[in-house]
Amino acid sequence: MTPSAAAAATSLVRPTIAALAGYVPGEQPQSGKWIKLNTNENPYPPSPAVARAVAATAAGRTLAKYPDPLATVFRMRAAELLGVDPDWILCGNGSDDLLTILVRTFVGEGEWLRIASPSYVLYRTLAGLQGARCEEVPYRPDWSLPEAFAAARDRLRLAFLANPNSPSGTLVPPEQVAALAAQLPCPLVVDEAYGDFADTNCLGLVARSERVIVTRSLSKSYSLAGLRFGFAVARPEIIAELVKVKDSYNCDTLSIAAATAAIDDQAWLAETRGRILATRRRLTDAMRALGYDAVESQANFVWCTHPERPHKPVYEGLKARGILIRCMHYAGWGDGLRITVGSDDEIDAFLSVIKTL
Ligand SMILES: *Cc1c(COP(=O)(O)O)cnc(C)c1O
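ok -> structure tokens follow
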């Protein structure tokens, strides 16, 4: 594309979009043999029940019909597991879809979205797409959340809290989240994409407060990043509003069948989670032995900073040896390495290379 063609296209689109940098996901190489420790995927294959459900669904005449707009079978099963009614659940094409629906539902042009930072960069992009403004409240150096996160502000319409947070892997305790939600003048979305790896979660707050909305993802804990399935838990009155905003058929028939089979296999989840938590312990301790400050994680990745050694050359050295991790830079915060908890073999390979750098 020539610069003049780019400029011409820019003049055609909404100025808000032209000014937007656009969200850049982590590297997803489509060829070559990589050890991928950069986008928090699960290193283990999903429950075998998933493939069986997909095959059975694809074999019949089911795909000739539109999917169930509300993914009722999934909602019924998830409701049973979570101890809520099905009308408290909304399914999405990955939890990113739900985050988009939430911003479109609550935040208008020129209004404010509040986020804690550093955190998931997509939140800011979603505000930008909406022509909304984004206020970033910095975490304290120990990754605790200051009171300012709950402060009143004119035209503040929604707040996002990734909990456990990325890149830190840290968790704001549910009691503190409840206190923040009670003070906030707007709804609070608790993004629990990593909730299954944590000791505790904020699901119980949804019943206690009409202001709290929890989102979950099957990408990480259920090893289904390629499938695209997530869900939100909120009061039925809120779910009913979100339904108006979502695409009619935002989840397809195969993904609904697969996601239902995945959550049906809780034994698989318990076993895989146990393995990942054991490897997380080993990775954290090994990084500390190498002189890194490795934050105690409640997720499936570990955030590491080194007091002296620059991070970028370490990332590049690993990449040259076929190992991808994430080197993140946050304005006003500095940079660091976010390392996904892979399999034991992957982490061993990673450790043997990083030791030589
Ligand atoms: C991975 C991630 C998501 C997105 O999950 P999908 O279900 O794959 O869309 C949402 N929030 C956070 C904090 C994440 O890290």
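The CA atoms of residues 80 and 86 lie 8 Å apart.
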